[in-house]
Design goal:
This protein is an alpha+beta fold. It has 2 domains: 264 residues, Beta Polymerase, domain 2 (2-Layer Sandwich); 62 residues, Magnesium transport protein CorA, transmembrane region (Methane Monooxygenase Hydroxylase, Chain G, domain 1), CATH 1.20.58.340. 53% of the residues lie in helices and 14% in strands. The protein is built from 10 helices and 7 strands. It has a 7-stranded mixed β-sheet, with helices on both faces. β4 and β5 form a beta hairpin. The N and C termini lie far apart (125 Å). This is Magnesium transporter CorA. It is a multi-pass membrane protein. Its main location: membrane. Keywords: Cell membrane, Membrane, Transmembrane, Transmembrane helix, Transport.
């Protein structure tokens, strides 16, 4: 009878468990919209990841990497930050949007935050729920790389990238040329939005001062002023970062790029002037609208008081004769009833004429 072999070194229990694989870094490919290497302003052929692209640039010592990301999460942005050596504070800012427009410099890397705006189409201010929609674009510009991080559905940069690639002499200026192009695109959007808001402000002004509108709806005025304040918070703080970027002698920005940034700064000044003008005008319209509403209420109260005074006369006489006393004037006269009715009509007519001439009715 054959014996059952005992489990030894060759049994199942002696097999070594497979060693766990080392943890892999989180992938950020889902957030990457486009990644390319540019040498002398020309895009290099082929599709590469940002790690390989950065390695290629630093090994050759030529060109720069441009990586475009859209709404990365914490893990994705942390991996990008480790690859490009970004400070942890700016990595956190890039993930959590709603930053104030600003410029921060970490060694040789510039971090620019821009608020984007988009005009929301609407039939009229009375039917609108919002006028401008905001988003955010962040730009990291280093010696051999530029990262653009977008938040919002209206912040796409693919068209701008294609236009820049058609002008290699601009891209040859380096990563700050991309920073200028982004700032220029955003400020041009500001100009377009303010031009569209001109129509809304004019419509509000016409409705406030129009004589044809018997009743004034003050809600659209408050809505537009709220949207103007939102635009002002997006536009005004950008003036200081642009001023710093255009300072003569800035070693991180080439002279030619500074010249172009000055033009962007001029356009931004125009936008800020318009927004401040809208703010002042809407404040005046709010005061005028409140005064007009007060006048409407006063007019209504005068009309109500006039009609109450007219109605008080027949009410008073009817109340007196309704007490049913035996000895009252003209009760036993056949012409007593017509006399009282005629007196009522005459007094009410006189009161109506008096109130009409006094513009109470």
């Amino acid at each position: 009878m054959a014996s059952i072999p005992r489990s030894g070194s060759r049994g199942l229990s002696s097999r070594r468990a497979p060693s766990p694989s080392p943890p892999q870094p989180p992938s950020s490919t889902g957030a990457v919209v486009d990644c390319a290497v540019y040498v002398n302003g020309h895009r290099q052929p082929g599709e590469v990841g940002y790690r390989e692209a950065l390695q290629r640039v630093r090994e050759s010592g030529e060109g720069f990497v441009w990586v475009g990301l859209h709404a990365p999460d914490d893990a994705q942005m942390a991996d990008v930050g480790r690859t490009f050596g970004l400070h942890e504070l700016v990595v956190e800012d890039a993930v959590h949007a709603h930053q104030r427009p600003k410029l921060e410099v970490y060694d040789d890397t510039q971090f620019l935050v821009l608020r984007t705006v988009q005009y929301v189409e609407h039939e009229s201010m009375a039917k609108a729920s919002e006028v401008v929609e905001t988003g955010e674009i962040m730009v990291f510009a280093g010696p051999d790389f530029v990262l653009t991080v977008r938040h919002g559905e209206h912040t796409e940069l693919s068209g701008m990238r294609r236009r820049l690639e058609a002008r290699p002499e601009r891209l040859a200026l380096g990563p700050t040329a991309v920073l200028h192009a982004v700032a220029d695109k955003v400020v041009d959007t500001y100009l377009a939005v303010t031009e569209r808001m001109d129509v809304d402000v004019a419509a509000i002004e016409e409705s406030v001062f129009s004589r044809q509108n018997r009743w004034l709806d003050i809600d659209p005025v408050y809505l537009l002023r709220r949207e103007v304040l939102e635009l002002r918070r997006a536009v005004t703080p950008l003036a200081e970062p642009l001023r710093i970027l255009t300072v003569n002698g800035n070693p991180l920005v080439p002279k030619e790029v500074r010249r172009h940034l000055r033009d962007v700064s001029d356009h931004l000044t125009t936008v800020i002037d318009r927004v401040l003008e809208y703010d002042d005008l809407l404040n005046s319209l709010l005061q005028a609208g409140a005064a007009k509403v007060g006048i409407q209420q006063t007019t209504d109260m005068r009309k109500i008081s006039a009609w109450v005074a007219i109605a008080a006369v027949p009410t008073m006489i009817a109340g007196i004769y309704g007490m049913n006393f035996e000895y009252m004037p003209e009760l036993n006269q056949p012409w007593g009833y017509p006399l009282v009715l005629g007196l009522l009509v005459a007094v009410c007519a006189v009161l109506f004429v008096v109130f009409r001439r006094s513009h109470w009715l």
